[in-house]
Every structure is written in C-alpha cells, then in structure tokens.
Amino acid sequence: MKSTYRERLPDFPESMTVSTLHSDVKRNEKVTADEDRRTRGLRALSEITGDSGAGVVASLRDIAPDLADWIIDFSYGDVMARPGLDRRSRELATIAALTALGNAQPQLKVHIAGALRVGCKPQEIVEVILQMAVFAGFPAAINALNVAREVLDQ
Amino acid sequence: MKSTYRERLPDFPESMTVSTLHSDVKRNEKVTADEDRRTRGLRALSEITGDSGAGVVASLRDIAPDLADWIIDFSYGDVMARPGLDRRSRELATIAALTALGNAQPQLKVHIAGALRVGCKPQEIVEVILQMAVFAGFPAAINALNVAREVLDQ
Amino acid sequence: MKSTYRERLPDFPESMTVSTLHSDVKRNEKVTADEDRRTRGLRALSEITGDSGAGVVASLRDIAPDLADWIIDFSYGDVMARPGLDRRSRELATIAALTALGNAQPQLKVHIAGALRVGCKPQEIVEVILQMAVFAGFPAAINALNVAREVLDQ
Amino acid sequence: MKSTYRERLPDFPESMTVSTLHSDVKRNEKVTADEDRRTRGLRALSEITGDSGAGVVASLRDIAPDLADWIIDFSYGDVMARPGLDRRSRELATIAALTALGNAQPQLKVHIAGALRVGCKPQEIVEVILQMAVFAGFPAAINALNVAREVLDQ
Amino acid sequence: MKSTYRERLPDFPESMTVSTLHSDVKRNEKVTADEDRRTRGLRALSEITGDSGAGVVASLRDIAPDLADWIIDFSYGDVMARPGLDRRSRELATIAALTALGNAQPQLKVHIAGALRVGCKPQEIVEVILQMAVFAGFPAAINALNVAREVLDQ
Amino acid sequence: MKSTYRERLPDFPESMTVSTLHSDVKRNEKVTADEDRRTRGLRALSEITGDSGAGVVASLRDIAPDLADWIIDFSYGDVMARPGLDRRSRELATIAALTALGNAQPQLKVHIAGALRVGCKPQEIVEVILQMAVFAGFPAAINALNVAREVLDQ
Fold this sequence. Notes:
Oligomer: homohexamer
Helix content of chain A: 55-70%
Radius of gyration of chain A: 18 Å
Largest interface: A-B, 46 and 46 residues
Number of strands of chain A: 0
Structural class of chain A: mainly alpha
Shape of chain A: globular
Order of helices and strands of chain A: HHHHHHH
Largest sheet of chain A: none
C-alpha cells in the first residue's frame, strides 16, 4: 500500500498488517463483548429510527429472533454507530441507495424519518432523492418521493 | 398539503400551486436560458469530477452528442449544481447508490474520486461503502471497495 | 471513428468534433431556449400519456416542483419528443425496460396506456412483455402482465 | 474441455460435441413430443405449487395463453421437473433468488408454500432468507420474511 | 373479461376459456412437435443473431447442453419467432431491457448487432439507449453506449 | 402467532416474547463472546471457501479491516455456520441468488467452488444455475454458467 494512501488515512495504524488477523488489535470501535455491541446498537437504533426500528425488530422476534439480534448488534451496533461518518451523511446515503434499488420502500420510509430525526432538513432529503433521477432514473426518484411525502406530511 | 409540512419547508413559496405550471415562477435555480445551464453544468462537472467527467462527455460526442449535452446541462447544470444539498453529501450519496446497484463501476470510480475532490476524507468514503453491506449485501460492498482501492491508491 | 460508421449515420454532421463543444452547433432538435423545451415537452407528455403524465407532474409540485419541470423539459422535451425513433418503438422499449426492472409498476402502467395511445395494438404490448420472460425471467413477465390487464380491461 | 471436468460430470456423454446439434441425441429428459412436456409439467406444477400454480396459469389464459403454456411446458416441464437436483434444493434456491431480487413477492409467496409442500422445514425456509441478509442486504431479508410469515401463519 | 377488452384483441378466439387447458386448441403458433420449434428457433436465431447466437449455443454444449436446446427451442422457437411483434421492435425492446438491467453486457452486444441485422438504423439503436437515461439513469445509458460503440465501429 | 405455526417450528421456545429482548435467552447458537464468533467464523470460512475466502478477507485488511472482521464474525460466524440448514443447500442458495443478481461474479465464483467443496455435485451446481433462466432470465443463467465453467475446468 503506497505511502500517499496511508498519508490520507491517518486513522489506519501503521502496524496494520494481515498477520494481525488473530491478535488483539486495538482499533476504533473494538468490540470486546456482546453487551457493548448490544448497548451501542440499541442506542443507535433509537437515536436514528426512534420507535420504528424497535418495532421492526420486535415484529421479527416471532419468525426470526436472530435476525432481530443482528439488526441491533450488527447493523446498528457494528455499522451505523460507527463514528467515521456523521449520522446525517449515513441517513442520506441510505436514502440514496434504497431509492436507487427501488424495492425496499418500507426501509426507505424508516430512513427518511431517520434522516429528519438526526437533523437533516426536509429539503436535503428531497434533494438526494431528486439526484437519483440522474443515477437510477426518474421512476426510482418519483416512487421514492411518494414515500417521502407520507413521512413529510405527518 | 398540511401546514406542518410547509412549516418545515420554508423555501417553498406559499404561492406554489398547480396553476403556476405555465407562468413565469421565480424560484430557486430558475433557468432562463441554455447558457446558464451550460455554464453552471460545466463548472459543477469540473469542480466535482475534475477532468474525468469532461473525458466521459468527450468520449460520447462521436456516438451520442446529445447525451454529452444532457450530462452537462441536466445532470450537472440542473441537478448536481443545486445548492440545497452540499457537495460532500451529494458525492457520498452517489457512491452509496452506485455501490448498491453494483452494475455501474465506471461511474462509481468517477464519483469516489469526486468525493475526494470535494473534500470527503478517504475514511468517509470507505464508511459509506461499508454501510452498504447492511443495505445491499456484502458482495456489493466488497466489489465497491475494490474500485475504491484503485482510486485511493493513486 | 471509421468511415463505415459515418456511412451508417448519415445524420451525424461530418464536422462534429469535440472542439464544437461550446460553439453554436446546428443539429437536430437544438434547443435554443426554455420555452421550446417546455412546449415540446408538454405536447409529447400529452400525446403519449394523455392526462396521467400531467397528473404525475401535478402531484409532484408540492414536494418537488423542479422534478415536475424536469419531467416535462428533459424527459419529454429533450428525450421522448426526439424524432430519431418512432413513438410506438419508444413506448414498447419503455414497457420492456420497466418490465425487466420489476420495481416501477406505476410507471409501467402509464406507459402501457401510452403505448395504446400512440397506436400500439394490445397484442404488441402483450408480446413485448412475454419476451421479457426470456430476458428477465417469468416473474417479471407475470407481474407486468397483471399491470397490463388493469389497463387493457378499461 | 479437460478430462478432469468430464470425470466429475459422469452424466455427460463422451460423444457430446457441437456437431450433434441437429441429430437425435439421446440424453436425459429428452423431450420427444409436446404431451410429454405437458404431462411432466402439470405434474411438477401440482407437486410443487399445489393449486396456486394452476391458479396463476389459469389467470393468465385471458391475456396471454401462450405464457400459461410456457409455464407448464418450459418452466415446470423442462426445468423444474428435472431430476438432477432434488425438489427441496430447487425450492430453497428459488426462495433465495426471489428474496435477493426483492421485486417478485407474489412468486416468492408461491415458492415458500412450495418449499413446505416438497418437504422443507419452516426453519430451513427462514434460514435461507436470513442468509440473504449477507448476500443481498437486510431489507431484502426483512421483506422476504414478511412474506414468509403470511405463508407460515396459515 | 369485459367486452371492450375482447374488442381490442380480435385475435383472441371467443372460445378461449380455462377449460380449454388440456384440449387441442388451435391458436396462433401452436407447436405440435419438437422439430417445428427447433426449425423455427434455428431460423430465428440465425436471422436475428447471425453467427453469434449459434456461437453462444455451441459454447454451452459442454457444460449445459439442455440450456443450449432451450435457447433454440424456447427463447427463439417459442418466443422470438412469434409474429405478433415485428423483429425491429423486438430487438429495440431487448436493447432497452438489457440497458436498464446493466448486468448483461454480452447479451446486449449480441442484440445491438441483431438490431442492425433485422433492419434497425444505428441511430434508432442509439435513441433507445439514450431513452434509458430517463428510465434507468445515466450510468445505464453510458455503459450501454460503450457496448454499442464496439458494434457500430465494426 | 397461531398455534399451527408453533407446531411447525418446534425449535422456537414457547417462552419467546418481545419482553425477552434484553434478557439472557438461551437459544440455538447463542453467542456469548467474540472469540466464539471468530472461531466459528474462521472454521466455516475455511470449510466452505477453502483459501479463497481467507484471501478475500486478507485483501480487505488494508482498506477496510472491520469489513474483514465482519465477514468472519458475522457472515460466517453468525450466519453461514448456523446448523438450521445444511451446507450444500446454503451454497446452492447462494449460487442461485448471485446468479439472479448478475452483478457479483467474483462472489459467485467463490461460492461455486464452495459448493463443490461442501459436497455438491457439478451437475447440481449447473442445475441451479439453469433454473435461474426461469426466475431471472437467460442472460443471468448464461453469464453464471460462464463463471461456473472457469471453476469446473480447474
């Protein structure tokens, strides 16, 4: 890995090599036990999705309790709670991706509400969806705006 | 449209109704003539993509000159140049969407470089791609990281 | 670009080069001002989609008036109104693409009606959807036929 | 084609070459006439989908009778009835693919019921959908589980 | 099925009902035996794809001879050879769908060449790809044009 | 949740309710600490992917060490190592999904090799890809077979 790359990634320890695969590497967000992931996950889930995320998790406990756990521990505890990217960017990025995919409208709705909750302005949400007209086509953008309207109208 | 919605969208004029479809409504970013779109588009194309966007545009002039124009005038002039969302968020959102789609790696490469150009940190780019492991799966994230490495290694 | 290519594209001016990017090139469908795009777009929107396209545009004016403008000016004014491909082919191509994508059923419905409006026979619409069983799979074709039935039954 | 490949594909006749394209090659599942495909297809359709597949086929006879025939003769007669892969694997694979695609929920529902019918345990169906969280993302898995719940609750 | 629907589908026999599922219904393109499908399929494969389709079929005979048969008998014999939609429309529709999907560039290349072979003008092929910028986004259109250039430059 | 559902899911404890979210529920595959997930994940990664999975993980340690960890701990430790579905079914399901998605060929290659490693016959792998011609279209199946040939030819 070239030096210029490391210069631009100051938060990657110089000592990071493949041989550290099994050792106890101290890096950002090192999870040492389940309850840390669980605590962090529940907090991020609540801060981002309010009650809706907890509702999704609860609704899964009948059919797939382990997926419910993974949402909390992995999706939110390991990923969404990470400090390397601010919450507003995370939610706008999620809205962009789900708009482009076009087949995850329930999750899109959750994250449009999540974007508002973490401080995005309604206009910023609309802007990122509009931008998807360029990258994923007009149908994707129109259908996502119809989901956004449901949230923004509340 | 409920009043709470308008309260949260202060930049929508109260006078915006369907009947204003044909009238000369003065709103943000009103385009009055081609050369404004062209000027704004060329500037945004350069500021975001450096020379690579111009390269894509130039390469299309043999087979589809009008698409080359649309990229400049519409994609960048009408959409990417809009002030309602900051450039860094726009590029991270684009990276997220293209990562999720998984079938637009040339464009993903352009916009990873674009994200760096508009001020995103390499780690922020990596973070948004990692986040797509949750929303679009691990293959999407892994394949996008391989594109990112090409850019970050330069 | 080889000469055989130009021979097959008689409508590409011999003088088309990259250096003409900023000059006033007179080619097909050159847009000189907004109202030409707007006029052409509104006419194409009406001729192809009847009232439904205008309905979609109107419904977007509350949340994203600029997207409403782009549909008229860009999607229909710059693209759908172009003379290089007949209207029937345009609508059948749109039906094929939306059937394959499988996540844009509202737009598919609009364009199935549009295909009828521009002169396609119902059987031709059914044929293009059937063909998508080969290229996108049977679920895509079945789901699109269910949309087609709604339109054809009216 | 290397010999090691043929060693692992004992059911490919050594005499299989391109020149046999038009000759009367006797290989597994050689269809000699329509009614064999039809008979095999109807039986597989019933064994796998119970009445729901026949319902889909019947519902298509008004708008696309030939697609109805293709489902029976090709999808089930030529493909699903093949002996080279057991029925349980076929249904679990279909569930995985439709979960990943995320835009074919009616068919996903049919094949979740189909998986139960051919002997898969409910937990196996849930497991394959959970696994798609890794390969296609959490939204795909969550949305598929909501379809599964409809079937498993009956 | 309402009468207005039947009025617009004159080629659907009045006597078409579900109970005709097993009987010997004489309708368009009734296939009575394998060699008819095979003959029709080989002819359509050749007329549309020239040698490239035969090349694809031949290349599959080592690993999946039955898929090779299905391409000839089903994809071309049952579907592409049907008279209800002209060949030019079929090829333009295929190009549109494969452009939108963005993950089938080898097949897109075959069908761009196919479109030329059945009489489409190069400009018509470019137009349908351009149109996909509206329905599937600019990346899809740009990437498809790069495939088209390979074919048109020959 | 109806009683018939519980009857078919004998491995769901009767006591599973939402209120058990934070308690220490003892259910299948309860992970109590990181090193259990790590150990299980490394073993499953090796048993399924041989060295290729470790190679992917190692290649990610420069740019995204945490994703490398998540592949081992979550994808393989939490998901692929689960006992509720046999390894052969897991690999065939993965091949089906990646074939249908059509944009993850590197991962498809890994899992075709993985399917062989866990005991699938080459013909079973070919069969599941063939089946995707029905559910995702012929291009998806053809392109996946070309990946399979690379693996099966070794």
